[in-house]
Amino acid sequence: MRALRRNAVAVLVALALSAGHGYGEERVATIAPANTSGSRDFKGSSNGLLAGTSSVSKIDVHTLLYPGSTTRVLAHYLPWWGPDPRGVDVGYRSDDPRQAYRTFADMQSRGIDGVIVDWYGQGHFVDTAWQASMPELAKFPGMTFSIMIDSGSFKFNACHGCDLTETILNNLAYISREYFTSNQYLRYEGHPVVSEFGMDAVGKADWARIHAAYPDIYWIHTLAPGFDLPYSKGAYVWAQPSSWATPQPAGTRHDLLYRERFYNIGRNQPPGMITVGGVWSGFDDKKASWGAAAPRFLAPACGRTWLDTFRSINERYSARQQLPFVQLITWNDYEEGSALETGIASCTEIDAQPLGASVTVGITHPDTVDHLELYEQLGPSSFRLVGRYPSDATSIALPETRAGTYFIKAVGKPFIQNVVSAAIVVR
């Protein structure tokens, strides 16, 4: 049903774009207002992230997926921003219920179906922050959540005297009691879904023992080797940044080849195995304590890396062979420069000039633009939307009473920064 609703909306948008005008009395106080859950105090960062005052496209992220997609879009979420000093001051705390509400409202406005919580174990700040956030998530009943047990739960927060397997079992006892009981917990074929991050980096878990204790769980493991682990129900892909010393675009190609290999492996899994796709805009971990000595990098390429990660999915999946889930990597890892919360920086520039009864338009990087909008200024803080137009429009007709000041807004594709032209004065 969701796919049918999206198709109906797409038809209406197409009709509106073809009509161009007809918006009459639709008025706004600001053409490109700050519209994300990022803190207004966050000024942006040198690892490529936009400020919390950015204006980004709120077009449904599902529109970037193949026609007829039923894929559920889940945001990788890190509720670890709190009292401890980190490489970036994001301007908020993850245990603040007001911030949690803003976060989930922002996610929902972009079409996100749920969150994957990167979790560090019982009693860790991440856990107490998520406990504080759950009542706010309940205000968005259509959204789900699931737990990803991070290897940090063993490296930094293992139960007393426990090895890796015993730590996982101890975590599961808590998760099953505290989280599986929620009607918003993510289930697949009726089974609770749990993923893990980087367990193979800290040791060898006894998955047979874990499965015997919790046979109902559907485990999703890290990267392509995760498909082959005992009792695995699937695997997820992750961004593959390269050393800063790797020339571009070689680093971008390395990332492309890895994810394509992952999907090719995932498509050939036996029935019942779950392939979790991934989309990301870039990576730069020089702000992170763990990356400062040997930082890694993946070029955002003005939003094209983001669009390319969707293209890798769309070339391999369809309405006949659905991808069950796609993970947004990441919602708010500001330290690694992968945060999507404040949007994806655009390199779009607009050259607009009045010419008779119309405005000529030139757009750089039009492939990252969803559509154009023309606004007429009515007062210091009052603008009227004149019409919406395709991103490849080269000429936009002005209203009959055309004298005035106008602006063109390039509305980005989902998550991409909106850009506004300089004033177009028509005399």
Topology (SSEs and partners):
Layout: H1 2-19, E1 27-28, E2 72-77, H2 97-109, E3 114-119, H3 125-137, E4 144-150, H4 152-155, H5 164-178, E5 187-188, E6 191-197, H6 207-213, E7 218-222, E8 234-236, E9 242-243, H7 250-267, E10 274-279, E11 283-284, E12 296-298, H8 304-314, E13 325-328, E14 350-355, E15 358-363, E16 369-379, E17 382-390, E18 395-397, E19 404-412, E20 419-420, E21 424-426
Helix pairs in contact: 2-3, 7-8
| SS elements, strand count | 21
Largest sheet: 8 strands, parallel, barrel
Number of helices: 8
CATH topology of the largest domain, which one? TIM Barrel
Any idea what the shape is?
A: elongated
Average pLDDT: 93
Q: Poorly predicted ranges (pLDDT <50, ≥5 residues)?
A: 1-22
Query: Major sheet: order of its strands?
Result: 2-3-4-6-7-8-10-13
The CATH C-level name of the largest domain is Alpha Beta
CATH superfamily of the largest domain: Glycosidases
Structural class: alpha/beta
Order of helices and strands: HEEHEHEHHEEHEEEHEEEHEEEEEEEEE
| Strand residues, percent | 15-25%
Rounded to an integer in angstroms, the radius of gyration calculated over CA atoms is 23 Å
Helix content: 10-25%
